[in-house]
């Protein structure tokens, strides 16, 4: 078992776990039971949830998948998109408007 990364935000760890599992890579989350920590735990990476591969041989492949997903997600989050229906601003990785639920197909320039 080899650790890929650890992150205070458990939802992120869970997200990458599902990405890797969908690629057929067996993963394991360390410190999973401690999810929901608050306060002091935030500054103690030792207890953060950590995503690991079960088979060391999958490590390189798993890191590759994570890197591809990180750049994809972060590139899109940087852009704000205004909803064509109600003009609310949405993060670029949203497919539906958080406010009215309309589909946000293409980035629309804000004026
Ligand atoms: Zn909207």
How is the quaternary structure best described? single chain
Structural category: alpha+beta
Contiguous helical run count: 2
> Which fold does the CATH topology of the largest domain refer to?
Alpha-Beta Plaits
- Strands of the widest sheet, in order across it, are 1-3-2
Uncertain segments: none
Q: Overall pLDDT, averaged?
A: 83
Classify the beta-strand content into a percent band.
15-25%
CATH class value of the largest domain: Alpha Beta
In one word, what is the shape? Answer: globular
Number of domains: 2
Measured as a percent range, the helix fraction is 25-40%
Please tell me the CATH architecture of the largest domain by its name: 2-Layer Sandwich
Task: Describe the structure concisely for a colleague.
This protein has two helices and five strands; from the N terminus they run E-H-E-E-H-E-E. It has 111 residues and is an alpha+beta fold. The longest helix has 19 residues, at 59-77.
Q: What does this protein look like?
A:
The protein is α+β, with helices and mostly antiparallel strands. Helix content is 29%, strand content 17%. It folds into two domains: 2-77, Alpha-Beta Plaits, CATH 3.30.70; 79-111. The strands form two sheets. It has a three-stranded antiparallel sheet with strand order 1-3-2, covered by helices on one side. Strands 4-5 form a two-stranded antiparallel ribbon. β4 and β5 form a beta hairpin. It is globular, with a radius of gyration of 17 Å. The model has no long low-confidence stretch (mean pLDDT 83).
């Amino acid at each position: 078992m080899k650790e890929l990364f650890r992150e205070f935000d458990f939802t992120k760890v869970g997200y990458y776990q599902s990405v890797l599992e969908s690629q057929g890579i067996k993963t394991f989350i360390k410190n999973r039971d401690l999810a929901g920590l608050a306060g002091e735990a935030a500054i103690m990476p030792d207890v953060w949830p950590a995503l690991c591969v079960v088979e060391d041989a999958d490590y390189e492949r798993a890191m590759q998948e994570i890197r591809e997903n990180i750049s994809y997600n972060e590139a899109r989050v940087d852009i704000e998109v205004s909803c064509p229906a109600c003009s609310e601003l949405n993060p670029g990785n949203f497919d539906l408007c958080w406010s009215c639920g309309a589909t946000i197909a293409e980035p629309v320039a804000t004026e």
